[in-house]
């Protein structure tokens, strides 16, 4: 029953010799120490020989700490990937495959082929045969296209096995085991099916019934051989796959003796050619099915779908790229640098951001096999070109295991059309899991509300949608050709529960937001940031729309929206009997208000038993308004307020102390019966009198949980003046 936290905290001081960032938020020092220790040893930051407890022949730093690592960051030249993929660290890699959940890449640089080979081995083990569920990439101003697409494609579960990607003179042991098990399964199935067919044939002969065609007969029928292929693969294939394979065969082997029976049958030459292609496809996909079946069953359980095996058929190369494909395959023989991502059935079909129709020359999903994939993908500050957007679009269109997608500051611009096309294709999969989408960038290619409508019309299954832009694009009016304004597209009923919109100083027109609200009956959280209100009636219209369309709304947030002239609407919100959390952040509430307005706010909150959290950061409360807010907890109050946020409100130590004394008095009057539990005080002027501030904080912490920081108000003011 004794906690070892103090021991691990002391070990941190002794070994790391640094102050951990955000130490107040660390809940488990053991986990924090072992994860940081592993990372520092892996990247050569920590010299184990400097501590006698670590420098021992029985102790392997990486091996002993690896079972406790759930998050790992690889950076720069991927030295960590090279080290982990080395033969001597095979056991370390096995431990990581069982423990690692989050894999991050940061500040990557270009790499040579040997480093990429090490990375492929690492990703294959940790993602395809491991437990990594999240891949995040950060700060890559000039990304290496080959390396970026390699990470994306393997995160999506695609891998091109074979001699080109074989390491340590042998293929992946886990893949070999699965191939062997699958071969035994198929052999047993074929044997059982053969017995059944012989028995059925015997029964039919005795009864005088026509005999069922044998496998050899099916082979003569050419295109009909897919029925046998279906039975061997133990799964129903969609007709587009059969048509595509047959069409591929017909295009490769020209035949002048075409059939005249309604165009429904092939000539003998076509039949044989088509059958050869089917057999080739069968051989290529048979082993992939075994890997996919097991990996997806482990990762998604009952949600695994056999048909996913054929999702990558859309990546068959276009005719205009066949020469490039043949050249790549002939000259390079499967190198990671020569995979291509173009496809005839790909979701990205040439919008404004996708003007170049052709091969990216990087990754062939047609030749790849499908393995387990991650459920969360995050790309932060990584510019995506048209090539990489098309590749990402093709991957997303069948990435059914993906649950969370974050695209932040990628310079998408018009290439957002590729992403929308991919979402539309993904939404057609009955087993897709995507529920959270966050898109943010400097410039918006289209108005925020229009983009929200585009996304929801393309993928109504989303539960959380966040759209954020810093600046309005001056060329916003130039829409992609063939892509009509989404304001004209009707939004189907959506599953949206959380909507966050950060406007690039755009006017908030309720008439544009209304269709979204009407389609989102399950909406529980709404956040509007940096919007301008075009008229004094606009906020009132919004509140009416919310009341009518979203009766389940629990959380409402306004940030950097000027509400100085909307006091009536503010009071109406605070009276709402459904809302549990209201945020007015940097909304200039008291810029032109009177003392009566503050009293009305306090009295309204006192009468509202539904409100649990009130956040008022950045509204220049000052000392006197903070002290007045203590009346919310007076003896005659029926308020259930638990959390109060007064960060960035020019509060000084003497004002905080007076608030504390008043709060203590009310608690005493109510016999200690108060529900107030959390007070946030970030970025206030508490450094002006440290002794008084410490006294106020000490007494407050006896009443509730206080979250504050050591903020230098003088330096912050100097920075503010320098920017002006």
TrEMBL record:
Domain of life: Eukaryota
Keyword Repeat part of the UniProt annotation: yes
Swiss-Prot/TrEMBL keywords: Leucine-rich repeat, Phosphoprotein, Repeat, Ubl conjugation pathway
RNA-binding is among the record's keywords: no
Positions with biased composition (Basic and acidic residues): 190-205
Coiled-coil segments: none
Biased composition (Polar residues): 325-346
Region feature Disordered, mapped onto this chain: 186-205, 325-350
A GO CC annotation given for this chain: cytoplasm
Name of the molecule in the record: Leucine-rich repeat-containing protein 41
